[in-house]
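[step 3/7] fold_predict: job queued, chain A
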Amino acid sequence: MDSIRKWFVVYLKGVAMGAADAVPGVSGGTIALITGIYERLIDALSIPETEQIKQGFKAFFNRDYQKILKLATALDIPFLSILGIGVISSLILVLNTMNFLLESYTTFTYGFFFGLILLSAVTLREQVYLSGFRRKVCAASGFSIAFFASGLGAASFNHSAPLLFLSGALAVSAMILPGVSGSLFLVVLGQYSYVSSLVSDLTSDFTGLLLQGRLFNFLSEIYPVLVFMSGGVVGILLSVNLVELALEKYRKASMTFLIALMVGALRSPLIQVVRATSGSTGVLSLAPEFSLGALIGGLAVFILDRNTADI
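[step 4/7] structure written:
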């Protein structure tokens, strides 16, 4: 019973991480840090040693299932699997909700994102270190990259396979970074609304497949999702050891860069609102609705920060 309870808790932590990463500005990595699984997650995602890989292949070809199970436990694969199920189930639910909000309440939702990003950066301000020329360069680089990429992403309707692959690599890699939301990169690259609509459509088509056998719709929707997920898998495998090294040896410079990235990304929700409502109404008339969304988003981060500060 204790074992079931333990794995259920891991699942719930995955749910919390997925929900956090589904909204720009809130970090799944921060949730992992808060709930005490961050170091275990990084260790589990790290590339196995050469000897472990050899043992795995040998056990597989010899059909030594007991040894395979023992090796899987040593690599913490059960933990990653349960956590991953929690993350994915939560992502699907929250992204479906976000897709509805983006379609029905565009200005309010982007205002909400703005508030989330702004207050997340404010709460992490103590981890910004500007002493020394190199750290100032890190801050300026992070801000500039996000600021200019936000403009490029918002101006483009390109949802090609290479861009989706890159977006998946950046978004999923960011999940393991404390302080940076994976979906923040999707907003910067102008892919957030598209990816959330893909998830919503795929969910609907999967239901249609089960109930009515409509296979064609499901296959047409799953291709871009698979491209995005492939990018995520490649991204996290390539970045996890680099992230671990950066946070261990260059933590101050790394965190300064990441938080500056968040500040630069504040441009994106503003541009997205202007683009989404272009020609339909005056920009100034959208300010009250945008501000209300930003206030609620900021309040959400404030409450989260106050309730997790002592953990």
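[step 5/7] annotate
Residues 91-308 form one domain.
The CA atoms of residues 171 and 182 lie 4 Å apart.
exit 0
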